[in-house]
Amino acid sequence: MSEHQVLALKYRPRSFKELIGQEAVSQTLSLALDSGKLSHAYLFSGLRGSGKTSSARIFAKSLLCEKGVSSSPCDLCDACIQANEGRHIDIIEMDAASNTGVDDVRDLIEQTKYAPSIGRFKIFIIDEVHMLSKGAFNAFLKTLEEPPSYIKFMLATTDPMKVPATILSRSQHFRFKKIAYDAVLAHIKHIAAQEGIPCDDERALEIVARSGGGSMRDTLTLMEQAIAYGKGRLELNATVEMLGVLDPERIEAFFARIFERDNDGAIAFVKESESGDCEMVVSELIGFLKEKLFKPQGHFNANVIERFFKIAAETRSLLHYGADGGFALGLMALKMIEALRPEAVAESIERIENELAQEPPIAPAIAIAPAPPPKDTKKTPLSGNALIKELLRRLYDRSAELGAAYNEAVKFIAFENGEFRAVFAESGEAIERLRIDYKIFSTILREVFGADTKIVKVAPETKNVETASQPPKESETDVKTDAPKDSVSAKEAIQNDPQIQKAIEIFQPEKIVVHEKP
Fold it and tell me: Where are the alpha helices (DSSP H) in 146-180?
């Protein structure tokens, strides 16, 4: 019985052409090898299983090939064969996770003093270099900056943020990206065909590729698990059960229940799924929404997908903080159904905010109306005084500042034919306060006098009248104090003014006589 070799090792790339999903890196390194413009130190960083260590080994083999430095080593000479088998004496691999100290780096530096044994270069591949201690990094700096001409350093890490800037500045940094889903899927299809593995449903391969998360090593490991669980076959049901993910048909059925607003059906899905990995369930639903975003069909449009994604993301956060899986999934399902209402709450809020933003802060200028004859003022019905009293009470209830501003800036004349007639001050803090809170003032006024009440500004010296929608601006025609034209003295007119009488009634002032000091 031949020795079994796992797929991740059996199909490890041995040339830059076989490197999957890292075209920019492979092209740059290939051109450097072909042109002979080589650096003494390289740093490869990126996701696990993205090809960092494999690229370092391919680069080392290309430097040591007996047919010369080239991006396409022959794989036939002794140097290439030894490099592929991991036994070349001039390729020294070091795991920084288990050799973290200054003494380990000191031993490495000692080896750099000796020329290569059989090859043209001596190459050091240091994996997980970010695990070195601070002292080890400091000890390594000088050698890394100015090594002998025959020394090449290949550093690899999954966390470049932990590598000191002094190391980064002394090496060429290559960032390995997450391998694209399509590239992973195409590669595992090729491997399945090469291995002669029966696959009845391509969706099983799609699930494996998606579950790998952009890591080729993780994907191939999961693929081998699925083959073992399926007794030598790649079957959809076995793959779904083994990985604990959702069957695509179940996802379709779940969203069908959502669009039908079937609460019972959605909750049934939740009860079936809560026994598994709930975070995996949410991730599968998000992946499904992503597919529908790029290939929309049926009820799925950008707005619906956005709402569903926000709900799923909130659910993932709940699970991250330890919420019960069944509760979080159930809440997600019900919120998705609620989000399908014709006018969702978020849209209503946004619509109202937009309407408020479009309204001008100050209404158009108000034309000044002439004062009515004195006889009209005297005939103000008693009910008008009662309404003014109620208006003052409500304004003070709402805001003491607003009530005081009305007392100071507004002189009530009459209420007749659905028109609230008054003299408004032209300037001052009080009228400015009324302008700022005009919506509140006009709303309370119409609650007291009637919904169709029109506000009319009155001025004694002009002859035009126009309905007012807001208090006057400072730039409008000046309005003089409305003084009675009969024989009553000015002092008596002020004392008999309805506004003054109401103010006295509300505040009950005490008269104080001030005598001038002799």
Answer: 165-168
Determine contact, residues 248/204, Cβ cutoff 8 Å: no
Maximal CA-CA distance, the chain = 128
SS3 435: helix
- pLDDT (tens digit per residue) in 82-138: 999 989 999 999 999 998 899 999 999 999 999 999 989 999 999 999 999 999 999
- Round to the nearest angstrom and report the end-to-end CA distance of the chain: 128
Q: Which of 415, 489, 407, 472 is nearest to 446 (CA)?
A: 415
DSSP three-state, residue 472: coil
Q: Do 93 and 127 meet the contact criterion of CB atoms below 8 Å apart?
A: yes
* Cβ atoms 318, 298 nearer than 8 A: no
The two tokens of residue 105 are 């780096």
Residue 67: C-alpha distances to residues 76, 86, 89, 120 (Å): 10, 19, 18, 12
What pTM, to 2 d.p., does this model score?
0.61
Q: How far apart are CA 210 and CA 219, in angstroms?
A: 8
- In the sheet that holds 151-157, the strands lie side by side as 91-95, 122-127, 151-157, 41-46, 172-176
Residues of the chain with pLDDT under 70: 1-2, 342-351, 353, 355, 357-384, 460-496, 502, 506-518
Tokens 């691999």 map to which residue?
A: 93
Residue 323 backbone phi and psi in degrees, to 5:
-70, 155
Cα within 13 Å of Cα(179), Cβ side: 28
At residue 461, φ and ψ (nearest 5 deg) are -105, 5
d(CA 128, CA 481): 86
Residue 68 CA to residue 75 CA, distance in Å, equals 12
Interatomic CA distance for residues 504 and 506, integer angstroms:
6
How far, in Å, are 126, 145, 146, 173, 412 from residue 168 at the CA level? Answer: 14, 11, 14, 7, 79
Contacts of 518 (CB under 8 A, 6+ apart): none
Let me know if 327 is exposed, middle or buried by CB neighbors in 10 A (0-12, 13-18, 19+): middle
Distance CA 425, CA 478 (A): 9
Coil/strand/helix, residue 412: strand
347's CB contacts (< 8 A; 6+ apart) are: none
Q: Are strands 151-157 and 41-46 parallel, antiparallel or unpaired?
A: parallel
Mind listing the pLDDT tens digit for each residue in 440-498?
888 888 888 888 888 888 875 544 444 444 444 444 433 344 444 444 455 566 666 77
DSSP codes, 397-410:
HH-HHHHHHHHHHE
DSSP string, 292-308: HHHS--TT--HHHHHHH
* Token pair listed for 242: 């083994």
